[in-house]
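All the exercises in this workshop are built on plain-text protein records. The record below serves as our worked example for the rest of this section.
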Amino acid sequence: MTPDIVIVPHTHWDREWYLPFQRFRLGLVRMLDEVLDTMAADPGYRFTMDGQLAALEDYLEIRPERLGEVKGLVAEGRFAAGPWLILADEFLCAGETLIRNLEYGMRGAAGLGGVMRVGYLPDQFGHCAQMPQILRQAGLEHACVWRGVPASVDRDAFAWVGADGTAIRTQYLPGGYGNAVALFSGPAEALPDRLAAFTETMRPWHPTGPLLAMYGADHSAPAADITAAGLRVATLHDYVTAADPAAAGLPAVHGELRSHARANILPGVISARMPAKQVMARAERVVTRYAEPLSALWMPGSTAAAKLLDMAWRRLIACSGHDSITGCGADETAQQVAARIAEAEQIGQAVVDMVSASLAGRAARDTLVVVNPSPFPRTALVLADLPESRAALFAPDGGQVPSQRLELAPTLLDETVMDDLTRLLGRIHERELFGQEILSWSAAEDVFTIVVGRHATTGYDYADLRSAVLGHAAARPGPWRVRTCAEPVVTVAAHVTVAPLGRTVLTSAPPSAKAPHSPGWARPDAGTLDNGLLRVAVAADGTLSLFSAGAEAHGVGRIVDGGDAGDTYNHAPPRDDALVDAPVRVEVEHVCTGPLVSVLEIRREYAWPAGSTPDARSEAVEHVAVTTRAELRAGEPYLRLETSFDNRCRDHRVRWHAPLPLPVAESFSEGQLAVVRRGLTGEGGGGERPLPTFPAEGFVTAGGLAVLLDQVTEYELTGGDLALTLIRSVGLLSSNRNAYRDEPAGPQLPTPAAQCPGPVTVRFAVLPHSGAWHEAGLPRLAEEYRHALLAVPGAGRAPVLPGGEGSGVSSEEAGTSFAVEGAGVVLAALRERDGELEIRLVAEHPVATEAVIRGPFGAARRADLLGTAGERLEVAGGAVRLPLRPFEIATVHLTRAG
C-alpha cells in the first residue's frame, strides 16, 4: 500500500450538456450499474458521486430495485452522496436558489443514509462571495473547489473568507477534479512510475501528509480493480474531513473566486442565450417573492400550495445546473431547460392565482385588491382595467387615489351575420359569452346587440334572453346582424400606498372630482421628462442626459454592435473587428404624457454587419431598428428603459453603453445575497483571456451611475463607460480555435439557436447618484424595481380551491402585515415551514446594522439554512431586533400569535 496517496474514485456527471438529459442518463445507468457491481464484489471499493444527489435520483428512477443496495452503501460510508441536489452555476441563479439546492440535496442524501459533508464544487465557472457562509450555515466545515482560485494560493488548502467574514477550510484541486485520471491507464507494471510522477507533481502543493488523487473524469466509471494495486482508497468525504476544519494558518482568499490564473472560468456563459437568463430570473421571482410568501401569509396550511411550490423549486434547481442555465449546451438541451423554467414559472403563477382568488373572493365586485410583496411600505403604480363609467379608484378612507388613463379598450368584440338568429343561443353558455358575463341585450331593426363585461352587476336570467332571441327570430325571420360589445373599459395607472407585505382594497366608482396628482408627478416637455426627482433629456443621436439632485450623466444609452467569433463559453472578437455605434436615423416621440407615467419612445436605425468570421465582419449589412422606451413614473428616482429590436444578425454582440460621470477604478454589483467590489481587470495567467466582464443580478454601479436589473446581466467597465450586454449571438457550443481561449471547452458543435434570432427585449432602469451605493439606497431601489405591486380584481365570491381546502384569509385579517426595517436589510425569502413562518434576511450593508421584524407573532428563534432551531429571540412590542454583521444571512422562525 502507498500511504502517501489517497485514491478517490469518482465521476463528474453533467446531467445535460452537449447531449440532452435523457440521452446522457442512459450512460449514467450503465456507469452506476458497473460501479455498484464493483462495490458488491469488492468491500474495499469506495465511490464519490460528484457532490450532486440528482444524478443518483436519475439512476434510481430507472433502477428502483437497487435502492436498498444504494442505501446500504451510503449508510456504510462507502458511497458518498450529496450535499448538493445539482452542481449549479453560482452566478446565474439567485442566492436563495443556491440555498434551496443545498437544502434539497442534504435532505435527500440524509434519507439515503448520510450526507457527504464537503461543499464539493468541482466544475463551476467561478464561485460566489457568499458560498462560505452558505456552507457553514448548513453545517458544513469544508469546501472543495477547482476553478477561480487565484495565483496567490500556493498549496492545496486555503481559508476561503466570505462576504460576511465567515471562513471555511477549502480543499483546492490543483490539476482539476481529474488530476489522477491517467494513473491506471497503461501497463500495470508501470504503475509505480506513474505514482512517482504524480507524487512529484503534487507534492509541492502538499508538503506533508497523503496526497489527494482524484481518479475520475466526465461521464465515466473508474476502473474496477484499483484496490488490487494495494493503494489506499477513500471517498472525498473521508479525505477532506480528516483535516482540521480550523482555517488558521492557511492562506486567506476573500470574496468571490473568479481568477483565470489556474483554470478557465469561461465568462462568456453569463451572456450566452440571454433570453434564458431573463425567464430564469422571472421564474425565480414568481416563486420566491410572490407564490411562496403570499401563500404563507394568506393561505397558511395549504397542502396544495406546498406541493406545487415543491414542484416549482425542483424545476428551478434543475435549471440552475452549470451546463444548463449557462447556455453552453446543445440546442436540444437549451430547449429542455427553457421548458422546465417555463413550468416552474407556471407552477409558481398557479400558486399566485390560488392566493389571488382567495383574496379576490373576500373583496366585493367593483374593487381592486392590491398586494405589496416588499417588507416595507410601498407607494407605487399599479395598472388596472376598469369600466369607463367607474374609472376612479378610492382608498379605504374614501380618498380618491391619484390615477391616469392610459388606454381605452375597443368595445366591439365581434360582428357577424346569422341567417337564423336562434344560432346565437349555441354561442351562449348560461351567462358566459366571449369569456365575459352578459350584462344586457337589445334589438333594433335587424341588429341584435349583446353587451358583456368582466362581472355582471345586474340580475340575469338565461331564460329571459332565450325567450327574447326566439321572439325576435319568429317576428323577423331571415338574416340578423349580431354584435357583441364589451362594456367600455379603460386601462388606468393608479398611485397606491400599501402596507409592508400587506394589502389594501380600492373601490372603483365614478370620479368625484379631478383625480389628485401625487408629489413628483411625471410631466413631459419637448424631448424631456421630469418628475421632480429626475429630469431626462434626449440628444439628437438618441442618447439621454439624466439630472438628479447632486448628480447627472450624459450620453447614456449608446448602442454598440461588435463582432463575436467566439462560442457559448468565451466572447472573442474578429481579428479585424468593426464596431457600429452611430445610428443612421433617429426619431423621438412622446407616447404617454403623464401625470403619473410619462414615456418617450426613441427609434434608432442602424446598419449592422450581417455576420462575422474569425477574421472580420461581413460587408453585407442588416438594417435594424432599435426602439427604446424611456419611462418615468411619479415618485421614482430612476428612469425605466426597455430596449427592443429584431435580431437578424449572426456572430455579434450588442451592448448598451453609458459614460460614467466620475473617474472610476472599481464597480459594485449585487448578486447572490452580496454586493461585490470589482476592479477594472481580471487576473490572468491561465489558458484564457481574462476579460473584465462580470455578472450582476440586482444592480451594478460605478462612477456615480447605477443600473437596476431584473435579470443576471453581463457588464464591463471599458473606456470610461459602463457597458451592459443586451445579446451575444454565437453559432458554436465550443470553438476549437477561440482567439481568447487556448483549449476547447467542449465539443465543436453547431448551436444555431444560440444566435438568438428574432425579437429581443431587455429591461432595466438607470439613475445617476451621489455618494456610495449604500448611501444611495440601491438595494431598496432594486427591490422596488424588481417587485411590482400585485393587483387583483375583487370577485365577490369565495373560490373553490384544490382538495376542498378553505378559501384562505378571513376578512378580519385585512390589515395583517409583516414589516422588516433596517439599513440595507433585504428580504431573501419568506415561507411556511412546519407550521411556522420562516423569514430569511440579508444585511446588504458594508457596516453592521440591525434588522427589526414586526408582525403578529408570539415567539421567534434563529435557525440555520436547513431549518435547525437555534437561539430564542426576544419578542417585545410585536417586534424582534436582530443585530447583523455586514452581509450576514439571518434565518428566523416566527410563531404566529394565537
